[in-house]
Amino acid sequence: MDAAVLLAGHVRGIAEQARAARPDSSPETELLAVLGPLVHQHADRFPALAAAIASQYGRDQALDFGLERILDGLEALITRRTGYLGEDQPRLISSGA
Question: CA angle, 15 as apex, 10 and 17 as ends, to 5°?
Answer without folding.
Answer: 95
